Amino acid sequence: MTQPAITIPEHEIVERFVRAAGPGGQNVNKVATAVELRFDVANSPTLPEPVRERLLARRDRRVTADGVLVLSAQRFRTQDRNRQDARERLAHFIESGLYAPKKRVATKPTRAAKQRRLDAKRERSNIKRGRGRSRRDWE
Questions:
Q1: Are 55 and 47 spatial neighbours (Cβ–Cβ below 8 Å)?
Q2: Which backbone phi and psi does 137 adopt, to 5 degrees?
Q3: Which Pfam families match (predicted)?
Q4: pLDDT in tens, 41-72
Q5: Where are the domains of the chain?
Q6: Alpha carbon of 100 to those of 10, 46, 78, 104, 136: distances in Å?
Q7: Which residues are CB-contacts of 39 (< 8 A; sequence separation ≥ 6)?
Q8: Burial of 124 (0-12, 13-18, 19+ CB in 10 A)
């Protein structure tokens, strides 16, 4: 089952260019190359409802309490490349909400697995008991 691709219109993306932090010499102090991209996940008419719910349900620190995704890109030296990087990361974020996660089927360990675990614990206990001082050392 393939999902249709979601195309986000330009007017739903807000980009702000700021000065980048970190190394880069005088260029960093003079040129606003870092990009802060904002996308309102909660109120976007483009996103289907199930995708919106999955994206907002994720515990992602980049999503604000109002449901706005804030991505900041400053890995590259040029504004254009940082802008492209931020948009790629937005695409990956939205792509992660396209597919519903599989439901986990609860299973129980087999009797043999339980026995192996207990045997391993018993063996480990014997090893540790052997490390202690023997009775002869106390007398």
A1: yes
A2: -70, -25
A3: RF-1
A4: 888 888 888 888 888 888 888 888 888 888 88
A5: 10-96
A6: 27, 18, 36, 12, 64
A7: 8, 12, 13, 14, 68, 69, 71, 90
A8: exposed
Provide the mean pLDDT of the chain.
Answer: 83
Cβ–Cβ under 8 Å, residues 97 and 51:
yes
Other beta carbons less than 10 A from residue 61's beta carbon: 6
Pairing of strands 34-40, 13-18: antiparallel
Q: Which fold has domain 10-96?
A: Double Stranded RNA Binding Domain (3.30.160)
Answer yes or no: are the C-beta atoms of 69 and 39 closer than 8 Å: yes
Q: How many Cβ atoms from other residues are within 10 Å of residue 132's Cβ?
A: 7
